[in-house]
Amino acid sequence: MGFKQVKSILPPQTHYFSGSDAVVEGAIASGCRYFAGYPLTPATDIAEGFSARAKDVGAVFIQMEDEIASICSIIGASWAGAKVMTATSGPGFSLMQEAIGYAAVTETPIVIALIQRPGPSTGQGTTFASADIMQCKWGSQGDYQVIALCPWSVQEMYDQTINAFNLAEQYRVPVILLSEAAISRLEERVEIKEEIRIFDRAKATGVAALGLPPDNQVQPMPIFGKGHQTKVTGSLRAYSWGLTSDKAVQEMVVSRLHHKIMDNRDEIIEYDSYYREGAEVVVIAYGFTARSSLLAVKALRQDGKKVGMLRLKTIWPFPDRVVAKVGSEVKKLFIPEMNMGQVAGEVMKYTCSKVISYSQTNGDSIQPDTIINELRRLL
Amino acid sequence: MAKDLAQYFRPEYRSTPQSPLCAGCGHGIVLGLILRAIDELKINMDDMLFVNGIGCCMWVPTPQFAADVLQTLHGRALAFATGAKLFNPKLKILSFLGDGDLGDIGGNHLIHAARRNMDFTIILGNNMVYGLTGGQVANTTPEGALTATTPLGNPYRPFDMCKLVEAAGATYVARYSILQPFLLIKSIKKALQTPGFAFIEAMSMCPTQFGRRNRLDTPVELLKFLKDKCITKKQAEGLSPEELKDKIITGELKNGGS
Ligand SMILES: Cc1ncc(C[n+]2csc(CCOP(=O)(O)OP(=O)(O)O)c2C)c(N)n1
Ligand code: SF4
Ligand SMILES: [Mg+2]
Fold first, then answer.
1. What is the pLDDT of residues B211-222, one digit of tens each?
2. Beta-carbon separation of B80 and A73 below 8 A
3. Chain A residue closest in CA terms to B91
């Protein structure tokens, strides 16, 4: 229970991995021992990778009959005590939405690698997009919170997968590793350290009480087969049928799911700043686009331009406080995205500064030159 | 009799039975039969995992059974159960699921759980209708029956889920009506002792939503209806296809490897 240091299974050295391999290795290092999935480009690489590694570590891998079955089966395995994962892309993620809400309300630790592809619908499997930012947060019905992380390198695919498992276990919440084929299929060096910091969920003891915990703290989790008489349900009427009023349960659940994450968001949220001193225009970027953006910002700084950058490593909960602070310091915020301005819209909620959204939805990654040209017009 | 089974309920639900099931609901009878089978086999409830879906069937284990209960999404119970079982094969999984839940929205998961021969005991509570949502047509509704969404009578044939799971690879398949309680207990015991996919169709009844629309308002009338409709394998022998048309054959339909 809690954080502990464990020895890396992989030899501590520099490895050369694809982003997908790094996710698989990060999952295994975190102690993920159950993976269920259904093939969908570009996320299939992760399922294939895990299936190849499963026997080395005694993990279960199963290809289910669809994405709904995949996510439902990982939720079942999580309650049986496993650290669990699935991987998919937009069309499969859409199918998973009902169960994501179920995992949120039942406070089940699960990790989903979402390797985005252009939509809507089947869209295109082999080009780039980052247009599932909102679906990630608002795809299932009702008010609930998830955590979503946005790696920008293969190293971060490894590190953030470990972080995703830690957060899922610590907060008992679905965590989405929100990535793109531009990174999952990129091959880069990855430094594997000798020890890894991992979090194991707090385990309950004795017979589990019916109904809801009294406060918004994360509760120790009972697991099946240990005599806890665990009751897991997404039906709020069934929480303590006949014992508490339905209205009180409804209100408490919604508020609990919100506060459990939002009250701890300063602990959860990560970001990086670059060249922010004296900047008049700041680029806010995430994922692959942050790589192009940093090249652009560096080039313009060398040219004496007052431009800086904020990289969002956590997308949900949204880094509202740092965005508000940066917004209050600069004249303009420039937000390049492979979607129609999903994060730009979110940024506008927290700042009165001028927000310039740049959208590219042709399936290509946004090139540094494009960003340089756009920024020159703003400076 | 009820007293003998008190230990299978959480203390909160022992003294004041407050089941949301309607009076005369067939699912309540199945509840008693499941617990009697467990009792006779002396299975420790700590080893049991009840995985249910959404439908009136869910109120059988949720939340009162003194065991682990995973109440899942409508149709998805067997996918959840697959994850729990594969990670911890020691869990003894029993699911009591509705005809809509298993045969409509969850049909694909049913086929694949049977194909994988997952070590589950599945009891289908077939009341020929969607009870919980107010009496709409199900895949199991008899042809011509009136439901909330077939005001002119169901135009389609009812589905035989026993044949489906048998073809998909189930190890044990049986069907009994709630008028055959002792055979059902025996069958549930067999299913619980069968390694692999064991499937029992329990012909149940819904007076509130099915009965009242089909001139079978009281539980007694529905029981008579079931008695007339469900015949044993033996009784079926020698009947013409015409005579068998509206009948449902009960008994053990498959027992053991193929
Ligand atoms: C995704 C989804 N669609 C629809 C429903 C509404 N719904 C709940 S139970 C049910 C059918 C119930 O019928 P059955 O499975 O036969 O169970 P019974 O109530 O008859 O026992 C439906 C359609 C739901 N809960 N979830
Ligand atoms: S509606 Fe029908 S199935 Fe549901 S509890 Fe009432 S009688 Fe039983
Ligand atoms: Mg039904």
1. 999 999 999 999
2. yes
3. A225
